[in-house]
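Cont'd.
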Amino acid sequence: MLTIGDVARQAGLRPSAIRYYERVGLLPEPHRVGGQRRYDRDVFTRIAVIRMAQEAGFTLEEIRTLVSGFPEATPAGDRWRALARRKLPEVDAMILRLMTMRRVLEESLMCDCLTLDACGVLGWSSAGTASTQAKTDLG
Amino acid sequence: MLTIGDVARQAGLRPSAIRYYERVGLLPEPHRVGGQRRYDRDVFTRIAVIRMAQEAGFTLEEIRTLVSGFPEATPAGDRWRALARRKLPEVDAMILRLMTMRRVLEESLMCDCLTLDACGVLGWSSAGTASTQAKTDLG
DNA sequence: CTACCGGTTCAAGCGAGCTTGAAGTCATTG
DNA sequence: CAATGACTTCAAGCTCGCTTGAACCGGTAG
């Protein structure tokens, strides 16, 4: 049984973050010994999931849905699957954007432009078509 | 010559955002007519660059360096290239994380687990090795 | 017994990225 | 001339994801 400090040290975050996660429903309320939180080792799995999802661009709100075990009162893993299904295209879109960015970065390493928008790298002609380009997806 | 309202409408953001970008140095100060800002169409290119970089996870601070034409007082595009070089691996890492997330989402659509961490999909055994896993990269 | 260490709560603060509101300016329209 | 509407500045507010500080509690060591 680990104290919040142990968990924090091993997971590489601050106790305050762990309490915060608990407050917003990302972590379950642990049992307590004399008022103090005691954690089981599988809290690390949970934290790792949270972190990964966070790095993948999910909000804590979304992660809460991902991660919390809607115990009864819910169809099944249907809720989680629904979210996953909804999120997949977003993740794909994100990957695409990042790959575009990657290309831009890489190609711009090879040219002499002073600024990004003075540079042809983007494939945009720097004016004219720009307004069309400007409304790509973001909504 | 476009007013700030025109630009905002066409770019899909609010005038306040445009003024904000100007304040933090993402957009150059436009000329003014009777105190009001007037923009050239190439502002849309700039805005599109900003948006893309933002979606790719750059902070406005970084984008400022990316986008602003450090006119004199700077070696060349060296500064921008330096940033690009520094950012490339980060972008790559981000892409990798997203692909992991994608895999998790996709595979979890195919299993019956109620929660993510009850599920084997992650490849983590749900305890034991977790603490090791927990410290992947984040720093 | 006292000190100290690490836990506890709660409210407030912070940085990023904007938005909102108040108060004023300016051009056009009736 | 007065009203309208889009602009202006400036300061303050808001959301997210935490952190920090004040004040307190409990267990162990000297």
